[in-house]
Design a protein that fits this description.
The chain is an alpha/beta fold. The protein is globular. Strand 4, helix 4 and strand 5 form a beta-alpha-beta unit. It is built from five helices and five strands.
C-alpha cells in the first residue's frame, strides 16, 4: 500500500457496528473516522478529504438519502458506498441515482467482504 493511508469515513448510528468497522479498517491499513448521524457525516465530508465514505441509510438527523442528495447538490465527488439493511431494489436504485457508487447489504455482507470490496474499489493491495 502507498505511504499515505487511504482515509475512510464510516457513517453508522449503531455504535457497536461503527466501532467494529472502524477497528477492521484500521487493522487493514486504512485511516478511519466515524460519524453517527447525517449532519455529522456532512460536516466531516465537507470539511475533510476522504477516499471513500461508507454510508448507512437509516441514521438520525438526516438519513443517508438526504446526505447523498445534499452532497450531489453541492457537487461533492467523494465516492460513497452505501452499507444498509434496506434490501429493496428501489432503495439501491435511489441511492445510485443520488451518486452512491456501491451498495452493500450489511446483514448479507461480512466485515471481511466489506474490507475486500473497499480494497478493490480503491485499488489497494
Amino acid at each position: 500500500m502507498s505511504e499515505l493511508k487511504k482515509k475512510i469515513l464510516v457513517v453508522e448510528d449503531e455504535k457497536p457496528m461503527a466501532h467494529a468497522l472502524e477497528l477492521k479498517l484500521k487493522s487493514s491499513g486504512f485511516d478511519a473516522d466515524v460519524a453517527h448521524d447525517g449532519e455529522a457525516a456532512l460536516e466531516h465530508i465537507l470539511t475533510n478529504s476522504y477516499d471513500l465514505v461508507l454510508l448507512d441509510l437509516v441514521i438520525p438527523k438526516k438519513d443517508g438519502f438526504g446526505v447523498l442528495a445534499e452532497l450531489k447538490e453541492k457537487g461533492n465527488t467523494t465516492p460513497i458506498f452505501v452499507t444498509s439493511n434496506l434490501s429493496q431494489q428501489e432503495d439501491e436504485k435511489k441511492a445510485r441515482e443520488l451518486g452512491a457508487q456501491g451498495y452493500l447489504i450489511k446483514s448479507n455482507t461480512p466485515l471481511l467482504k466489506i474490507i475486500e470490496t473497499i480494497k478493490e474499489f480503491l485499488h489497494v493491495v
